[in-house]
Amino acid sequence: MNTLKNNRSKWTKIALAAAIASVSALSYASSHREAPMIAGMPRLDATDLYMFRSYEEGREDYVTIIANYFPLQAAYGGPNYFDLETAGLYEIHVDNDGDSIEDITFSFDFSTILAGVTVPVDGVSVPIPLINAGGIGPDAADTANVNSRQEYQLSVIRGERRTGQREFAVNADTSATTFRKPVDYIGTKSIPNYAQYASSHIYPLSIPDCNTAGRVFVGQRNEGFAVNLGQVFDLVNLNPLGSEDAVANPIGAASVTSLALEVPISCLTAEDPVIGAWTTSSLNMGDQEPMQVSRLGFPLVNELVIGLPDKDKFNGSHPHDDAQFVHYVENPTLPFLLELLFSDAGAVAPTNFPRADVIAAVTGVPGLNLPETIASDMFPRSEMLRLNTSIAPKPAAQQLNMGVLANDTAGFPNGRRPGDDVVDIALRVMMGALVEDAAVAPNNTAPFTDQTTVSAADFKTAFPYLNEPLPGSAVQ
After folding, report:
1. Is 0.85 surpassed by the pTM of this model?
2. For residue 234, pLDDT beyond 90
3. Considering the domain boundaries, does residue 136 fall inside one?
4. Which Pfam family would be a valid example here (predicted)?
5. How does pLDDT run across 181-205, given as a tens digit for each residue?
6. Alpha helices, DSSP H only, in 309-464?
7. Cβ of 399: how many Cβ atoms within 10 Å?
8. Domain range holding 360?
9. Which of 186, 252, 223 is nearest to 69 (CA)?
10. CA distances (Å), 288 to each of 281, 285, 451, in order?
């Protein structure tokens, strides 16, 4: 008996240590510095991926994909602000046949344009230390006072990302192959009408082998992800069964940089209406193949599922090779930790191992967004964000932020909309929300929450959906 007691004490201490490591990962929000290596390269850090049928009026035949990068940008982050990495590639990959290999890749390549603005000081022309030398906007073409800005080219690759057929997407109005990124929101004096200025950087997009134009926007947006950051970091120091909106979003004043695409459904799908997507960033390595350093598809996987020793490995991996990580998904540690921390409140982890329900959520739910080729065992399962494009979108006013758990099949985990509360959904799925048998999942109806919520009402109802960032001069 004493031996059993000592072993239990030993494993409890180990579990508590693991809990601290786990919640530390969550504290950086959805893929915000989720792995040791990417924490040192914030410009290349993918934070969130959204994919949904457009619900802007008249755009229902399009899919919107938004990949966010560069986490936790402080509005007052001058004088350099938050340019993207010119030595990097930012890519959005789409698999439309279920084989976990990209069929279409949208590849963004950035460059920085320096105007070399100088001022005369005692007869000497001296370069200024600031991004702007006067007011900017309201039109994208107004760059007279802009000392430093970024442009990008967008390549569309059919087939494997490095060896497939590569062509430039072009501005459908001008045929230009270069697009402008708006300057970050320095403040209201520098950019008096940021909404109009940023909107002028939404471009009509002619996509190779696609007969209908899409749209593209790249620029700073207000952080759309909601998570109770401080309390989660403090050993989940909150009431996981309390009010869902008790805490205002702690990272709501931060910004991210969004790479937003709107693409006709017909240009993304093949025979199956289900598509999968993930985003990656890579560092150019001269004559060598670019080195992938960040990967994000289904939210929270690298934070809450992948173990610490494999987080960097996951960021450098490809969905086709996900069998190497399957033990993390089949035997997730988060439910064990929640039970350990909240057993007094009645938290009981599911016991249906291997966790087929978690596998389904991450790789495709049968009857919802599982490709036929995977359902027939033709191809292996893999982690990515999957969307059944045959399911009609819901207007913002009709969306339910618990998505499929609330019978709103147009929402997460069937794709992901800005107003889907993925943290609460993930917590509930981990604790058995997709398991009908209460004998093995006693908490399958429990409303687990991080007590910070989000909904479609918090966002725009038109492309690019995410809100304008806060001005630096307005933040004290």
Report:
1. yes
2. no
3. no
4. DUF4331
5. 999 999 999 999 999 999 999 999 9
6. 311-315, 326-330, 334-342, 356-363, 372-375, 422-430
7. 23
8. 38-110+153-458
9. 223
10. 16, 5, 46
